[in-house]
């Protein structure tokens, strides 16, 4: 599995030596690496063994702490040597940015260079794969990769930017064999294009490349672009967490921090949200194992039943609900409901609904749209008449209360012992709704941070270019443009082909029709053929 992650959150235990000692690949007390890995251990400490003893847990905690301290010190150093500046800067693209990053100056500060190498080496421990060589992206990352190679005792290759017109005319210098697994080292990622250039050259020479580490991710879509090309990116810092660290160190005023975060969000919205309306490929092909069991189950059902259809059942009695569920069951991958509309809801309703979900193989989506503080949603999710966490497979929430809400739901989900996926409401179908592009972009950021618990969005267009976070779109009907209360309908073709959504939610178009089963079959076949025809 490859995904975009940052350094401090998921430290792994270090590799063990052959005699069983814990042997960190970096000497963290010094903040730099110890060249303990031998030739034979050159899997770069990626195959870390996980013990169960409590000493190891203590080690785990202190590893995390050491990494955090290393990052804090480096953030301070980068600020002090002027590698990261805040003010008003005109970028090459013409955009005015409130921050500027130029890591080239780091080569003049051996201690900073050592810290950079040590933090890259720390990141290595988070990979589950193995690497034979590393390769720095020219030019700024070359000294970084070299320092890392020396500190970590890692073989390196170099990829030329320009090929000489004399001599060997080699593009990749150094010792490697066909199929050697290469890890890319980069200083800063914006769009990901520099990394992709090097990946192309390395792959053309027969090296296998599927991971990169970057010191700083500017959070402008590079991570997703790389993922789209099969490159998993790990970053030591993302710009938002570098800025947060500097604020915590009192090196940045809160007002400036807000301005910078606004800039990051707006720039990301421009790269993520404003896409051309034509030829947006649907994400269904991105069905490979995603590390989210709920997402994987949904995609597996969708593929098996050849259905991307979710039926919304806004009916008021258990009898109607179960009747529709049984009728449309064979044609859908998800049944969406509002339990609070059902007048005679009992635990028997949820039990029988689950039986139908299992019988026809569809998932249950409670459209509860949680929107309160974390503490309250925990209770709304798991207690009360509906006890949603005991039967739902998917729930949704508004992002407006902030990450505490997501944490609360995740916590309640863990307590329930069931696998439940969350969708954030990032856009609405109703006329005059108050959601704007910035809010949507913030939802995207929150969802990425909450993956794999958060698996996607309720929205009207594709938001995550990689398709990992999918979109279910409500407001779908063939025969109507809307209702009297602001609902707006689009056709399956428009939403799937032009807007790149992944699943369609159809309510009255199906449960309001004379023959819901027939209508469901029609929407199922139509949407599947739009997608694959
Ligand atoms: N729904 C919307 N639009 C939204 C959101 C949810 O229609 O923006 I968020 C829900 C409401 C209803 C279903 O349960 O999706 C759509 O039903 P109709 O197809 O009957 O309009």
Structure at a glance:
The chain contains 16 helices and 19 strands.
Describe this structure in words.
By secondary structure, the protein is α/β, with parallel strands linked by helices. The chain has 2 domains: 25-271, 3-Layer(aba) Sandwich (Rossmann fold), CATH 3.40.50; 301-477 and 487-508, Aldolase class I (TIM Barrel, Alpha-Beta Barrel). The strands form 4 sheets. The protein has an 8-stranded parallel β-barrel with strand order 12-13-14-15-16-17-18-19, surrounded by 8 helices. It is elongated. It is built from 16 helices and 19 strands.
Main attributes of the structure:
alpha/beta; seven-stranded mixed β-sheet; elongated; 533 residues; binds 5-iodo-2'-deoxyuridine-5'-monophosphate; 38% helix; Rossmann fold; TIM Barrel
What is the topology?
Blueprint: E1 5-6, E2 26-27, E3 32-33, H1 54-80, E4 84-90, E5 96-101, H2 110-124, E6 133-136, H3 141-152, E7 156-159, E8 172-173, E9 181-189, H4 193-204, E10 208-217, H5 222-228, E11 232-238, H6 239-248, H7 254-272, H8 293-305, E12 309-313, H9 318-328, E13 334-337, H10 347-360, E14 363-370, H11 374-382, E15 394-398, H12 403-416, E16 421-425, H13 437-450, E17 454-458, E18 470-473, H14 492-498, E19 503-506, H15 508-511, H16 516-532
Parallel strand pairs: 1-11, 6-7, 6-9, 9-10, 10-11, 12-13, 12-19, 13-14, 14-15, 15-16, 16-17, 17-18, 18-19
Antiparallel strand pairs: 2-3, 4-5, 7-8
Helix pairs in contact: 1-2, 2-3, 6-7, 7-13, 9-10, 11-12, 14-16
The site of 5-iodo-2'-deoxyuridine-5'-monophosphate has 17 residues, from strand 19 and helix 15.
């Amino acid at each position: 599995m490859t995904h975009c992650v940052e350094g401090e959150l998921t430290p792994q235990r270090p590799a063990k030596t052959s005699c069983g000692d814990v042997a960190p690949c970096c000497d963290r007390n010094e903040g730099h690496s110890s060249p303990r890995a031998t030739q034979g251990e050159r899997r770069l400490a990626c195959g870390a063994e996980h013990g169960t003893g409590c000493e190891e847990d203590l080690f785990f905690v202190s590893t995390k702490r050491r990494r955090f301290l290393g990052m804090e010190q480096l953030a301070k150093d980068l600020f002090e040597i002027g590698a990261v500046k805040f003010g008003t800067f005109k970028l090459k693209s013409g955009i005015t940015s409130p921050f500027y990053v130029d890591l080239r100056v780091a080569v003049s500060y051996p201690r900073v260079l050592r810290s950079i190498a040590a933090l890259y080496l720390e990141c290595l421990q988070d990979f589950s794969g193995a690497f034979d060589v590393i390769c720095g992206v020219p030019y700024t990352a070359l000294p970084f990769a070299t320092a890392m190679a020396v500190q970590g005792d890692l073989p390196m290759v170099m990829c030329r930017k320009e090929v000489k017109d004399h001599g060997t005319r080699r593009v990749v210098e150094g010792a490697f064999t066909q199929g050697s697994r290469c890890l890319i080292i980069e200083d800063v990622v914006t769009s990901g294009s520099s990394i992709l250039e090097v990946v192309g050259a390395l792959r053309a020479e027969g090296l296998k490349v599927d991971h990169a580490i970057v010191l700083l991710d500017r959070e402008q879509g590079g991570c997703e672009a790389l993922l789209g090309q099969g490159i998993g990116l790990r970053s030591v810092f993302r710009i938002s967490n570098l800025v947060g660290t500097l604020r915590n160190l009192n090196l940045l005023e809160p007002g400036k921090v807000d301005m910078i975060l606004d800039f990051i969000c707006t720039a990301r919205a421009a790269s993520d949200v404003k896409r051309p309306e034509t030829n947006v490929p649907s994400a269904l092909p991105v069905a490979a194992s995603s590390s989210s069991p709920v997402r994987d189950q949904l995609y597996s059902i969708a593929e098996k039943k050849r259905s991307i259809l979710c039926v919304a059942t806004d009916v008021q009695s258990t009898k109607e609900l179960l009747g529709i569920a049984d009728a449309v069951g064979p044609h859908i991958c998800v049944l969406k409901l509002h339990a609070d509309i059902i007048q005679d809801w009992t635990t028997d309703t949820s039990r029988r609904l689950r039986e139908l979900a299992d019988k026809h193989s569809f998932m249950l989506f409670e459209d509860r749209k949680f929107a309160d503080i974390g503490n309250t949603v925990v209770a709304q999710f798991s207690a009360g008449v509906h006890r949603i966490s005991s039967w739902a497979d998917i729930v949704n929430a508004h992002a407006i209360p902030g990450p505490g809400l997501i944490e609360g739901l995740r916590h309640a989900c863990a307590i329930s012992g069931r696998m439940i996926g969350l969708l954030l409401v990032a856009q609405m179908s109703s006329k005059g709704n108050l959601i704007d592009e910035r809010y949507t972009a913030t939802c995207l950021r929150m969802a990425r941070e909450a993956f794999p618990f958060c698996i996607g969005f309720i929205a009207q267009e594709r938001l995550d270019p990689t398709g990992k976070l999918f979109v279910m779109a409500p407001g779908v009907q063939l025969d109507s443009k809307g209702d009297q209360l602001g609902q707006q309908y689009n056709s399956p073709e428009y939403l799937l082909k032009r807007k790149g959504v992944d699943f369609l939610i159809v309510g009255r178009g199906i449960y309001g029709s004379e023959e819901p089963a027939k209508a469901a079959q029609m929407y199922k076949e139509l949407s599947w053929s739009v997608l694959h025809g």
